[in-house]
Design a protein that fits this description.
It contains 7 helices and 4 strands; from the N terminus they run αββαααααββα. The protein is mostly helical. The strands form 2 sheets. A two-stranded antiparallel sheet has the order 1-2. A two-stranded antiparallel ribbon has the order 3-4. The longest helix is centred in the middle third of the chain and has 27 residues.
Length: 142
C-alpha cells in the first residue's frame, strides 16, 4: 500500500535550514545528525511519528506542571496543589521529599503543613501526611 506524501515541499515542514537530531540513529551513533530533507520520508510514516508526538506532548504537559508549581503559585498553593495531585503517593513521601519535589525548603514546607493542620485539612501520623479535607485544599490551590 503506497501512501501519498503529506507535503511535497520540505520547506513548508521545516522552513529554516537547520539540522535535526536523527530520530532513528544510524549505526547507534547518537550524535549523528541529518538534514531536514532526510526527515521528510519519515513524515509519510505516521506509525513512527505518532508515538514521537505523543511522547513530546506528554513532556510538554510535564513541563507546564513544573512551571506552574515553581513560577506561578505561591508556596502554600503549590504545596496544596501537590498534595491533592499526588495524594496516592503521600504515604511513600516524607516532608523533605515533598519539599524537594516542589522546590521549597523543608522548613517552609513544615510551616505550611502546620497551617494546614490547624485548618483541619491534613494530619501527620508516623511522619506521613494524610489529607483530611482534599476538597478544601483543592479550592485553596485554585
Amino acid at each position: 500500500m503506497h501512501h501519498q506524501p503529506l507535503c511535497q515541499d520540505p520547506q513548508k515542514i521545516f522552513p529554516y535550514r537547520t539540522r535535526i537530531p536523527r530520530l532513528l540513529p544510524a549505526a547507534y551513533d547518537p550524535l549523528h545528525l541529518i538534514e531536514y530533507t532526510q526527515v521528510l520520508p519519515l513524515v509519510e510514516h505516521q506509525r513512527l511519528l505518532l508515538p514521537i508526538i505523543h511522547s513530546l506532548t506528554r513532556k510538554i504537559k510535564q513541563l507546564e506542571g513544573v512551571l506552574r508549581y515553581t513560577l506561578i503559585d505561591d508556596a502554600p498553593r503549590r504545596l496544596a496543589r501537590f498534595l491533592v495531585d499526588h495524594e496516592h503517593l503521600l504515604h511513600h513521601l516524607t516532608q523533605r521529599n515533598i519539599a524537594q519535589r516542589i522546590k521549597l525548603t523543608p522548613e517552609s514546607t513544615s510551616r505550611i503543613i502546620r497551617t494546614f493542620k490547624e485548618k483541619g485539612w491534613v494530619e501527620v501520623r508516623q511522619k506521613k501526611l494524610y489529607l483530611l479535607d482534599p476538597e478544601a485544599l483543592q479550592a485553596f490551590s485554585g
